[in-house]
Amino acid sequence: MGKCVVVVGTQWGDEGKGKITNYLSKKADFVVRYQGGNNAGHTIKFNNNTYKLQLIPSGIFNKNIINILGNGMVINPKHFLMEVDNLKQLGFDCNNLFISDRAQVLFDYHITLDGVKEKKLKDGLIGTTKKGIGPAYTDKIARIGIRMTDFTSDNFYESLQKTLLFKNEELSLYDEQQIDINKFYNEYKEIAKKIKPYVIDTITLLNNEIKNNKNILFEGAQGALLDIDFGSYPFVTSSNPSGGGVCIGSGVGPTNINEVIGICKAYSTRVGSGVFPTEFENETANYIRETGHEYGTVTKRPRRIGWLDTVILNYSKMINGLTGISLMLLDVLSGIKTLKICTSYSLNGKEIHTVPANINDLEKCIPIYEELPGWTEDITKCKTFEELPQNAKNYINRIEQITSIPIVIVSVGPDETETIIRTQIF
Ligand code: GDP
Ligand code: IMO
Ligand code: MG
Q1: How far is the CA of 26 from the CAs of 58, 94, 109, 120, 217, in angstroms?
Q2: How large is the average pLDDT for residues 376-381?
Q3: Is residue 353 annotated as a catalytic residue, yes or no?
Q4: What confidence score (pLDDT) does residue 358 get?
Q5: CATH code assigned at 142
Q6: How far are the Cα atoms of 13, 159, 181 from residue 167, in angstroms, in the given order?
Q7: Which of 41, 175, 281, 392 is most buried by a 10 A CB count?
Q8: Any idea what the CATH number is for the domain that residue 93 is in?
Q9: Which of 180, 195, 210 is the last residue of a domain?
């Protein structure tokens, strides 16, 4: 029997989804991105090389794996071609890469609008990656987006006419330059020609291959707390990174999904604005930031640092339907004397174990911590759970106890070899 396994971020993104997707993909036949766009930055390290992917799924390094950009994505075609070119130069031919004909195209005007909207918000700034993600999803929902099938067929000019009617009006609201349809069309039609060979009906393909007992790995971008429905709204992205997004963004029905692996840092980080209950700023936070190289893959911004928050993790378990956790960057905590785990919040003097919907309430939540002794040993060479220092084992066991989810993978370094597998996934 083949299996459908989901890799999903449980926090605010950058948990190490790329590393684990690449690792697990070795036993998969397909790797599918189901949402987001090039706001994502996924890092993969093997054979002393580091690769950074934004649109392309993290299974691309293995010729035998088909990589799919699902219908739920917003795809900047210029960025896509650039990423493909970069990979080709590195020796990966990308012949194993396809785009859903139902995916949305992200154009330059989406990037312009992302920028001007962020500027207008001033204090309320979301701190987006300025890649045009919000405006592209807005057009999809407003039913004026352009899909890959239209972009790469004779419909393109006609679709553009309709879209630009609205887009030029919107751009004028911000005193931005109007788009000349013919100039725009001529530029993008050349790009569309280059994109066309990648565009196929991925939905039928995936569903047929599930019947053929193939292994499918779904790669989430961002994380549960950046989800448009479940995240710390409005400081979120404009898609559904969480488990439910898989079906919507790939056309694979929920009854086919077998496992959902939550990727979770051994601490917390967040890049961009918005509430972050366990955030702290001191020498230990700086130590974590420097040891974990906590700077944004896409925007290079320093990531904000916090302790592990199991209120968030349990919430993530619930909305994602997690079956296992992959605990990441545990090596970064080596050398910290006392580790803290947030087990509940105090809100207006009352202890709570849930994530309030109201952002002002979440801002008011004071984390209640449990303290655990740390360890000093370098753990990057540990190959099994048993080899870890006792205090590291205690830390892992305690997280399992609090969340009642098995920690099936422990990551002790960025390289693919620095991975402890406790339960085989495929
Ligand atoms: P993603 O967006 O979820 O794929 O994560 P990013 O690639 O943006 O950020 C994760 C960062 O942590 C990358 O620089 C990875 O190379 C690195 N990383 C992943 N796992 C580990 C680990 O176990 N230990 C250390 N030290 N770094 C890791
Ligand atoms: P990966 O896949 C971390 C954040 C931005 C901002 C908010 C909205 O690498 O984990 P957007 O550009 O999506 O409209 O920005 O979401 N954000 C991420 N943070 N990792 C990501 O992706 C992110 N993608 C978006 O910083 O706060
Ligand atoms: Mg990232």
Answers
A1: 11, 16, 38, 45, 10
A2: 98
A3: no
A4: 95
A5: 1.10.300.10
A6: 30, 12, 11
A7: 392
A8: 3.40.440.10
A9: 195
Task: Count CA atoms within 13 Å of residue 63 on its CB side.
Answer: 4
67 plus 191 within the same structural domain:
no
Whether 189 and 227 share a structural domain: no
Average pLDDT over residues 313-332: 98
Mean pLDDT score across all residues of the chain = 97
H or E segment and range at residue 42: strand 42-46
**356: closest CA among 279, 280, 277?**
277
Among the bound ligands, the one closest to the CA of 416: 1
Do 222 and 312 belong together in one domain? no
Distance (Å, rounded) from C-alpha 221 to C-alpha 242? 9
Smallest CA-to-CA distance from 12 within 220, 219, 226, 221 is with 226
Q: What is the CATH number of the domain that holds 327?
A: 3.90.170.10
Domain boundary among 237, 256, 275: 256
E-strand ranges in 266-336 read 268-270, 304-306, 308-309, 324-328
**Ion ligand 3 residues within 5 Å by Cβ:** 14, 41, 297
**Based on the domain organization, do 82 and 165 belong to the same domain?**
no
* Residue 5, CA distances (Å) to 212, 216, 249, 400 in order: 16, 6, 14, 20
The burial of 177, by beta-carbon neighbours within 10 Å (0-12 exposed, 13-18 middle, 19 or more buried), is given as exposed
Whether 114 sits among the annotated catalytic residues: the reply is no
Q: Is pLDDT above 80 for 119?
A: yes
Angle between helices 108-121 and 133-141 (to 10 degrees): 110
13 and 161 part of one domain: no
Ligand 2 pocket, Cβ-based, cut-off 6 angstroms: 9, 12-14, 39-42, 126-129, 131, 133-134, 221-223, 226, 237-238, 271-272, 297
Tell whether ligand 1 has an atom less than 6 A from the beta carbon of residue 219.
no
pLDDT average, residue stretch 211-226: 98
pTM over the 0.90 mark: yes
Q: Which domain holds residue 268?
A: 264-421
The CA-based angle 186-190-196, given to 5 degrees, is: 130
CA-based nearest residue to 328, from 89, 43, 28, 108: 43
What mean pLDDT is predicted for residues 396-422? 98
Q: Which of 29, 42, 110, 227 is catalytic?
A: 42
For CA atoms 255, 251, 322, 212, give the dihedral sign. positive
Is 289 near ligand 1, meaning CB less than 6 Å away?
no
Alpha-carbon distance of 264 to 262, in angstroms, equals 6
Judge if 225 and 79 occupy the same domain: yes
Ligand 1 near 45 CB (within 6 A): yes
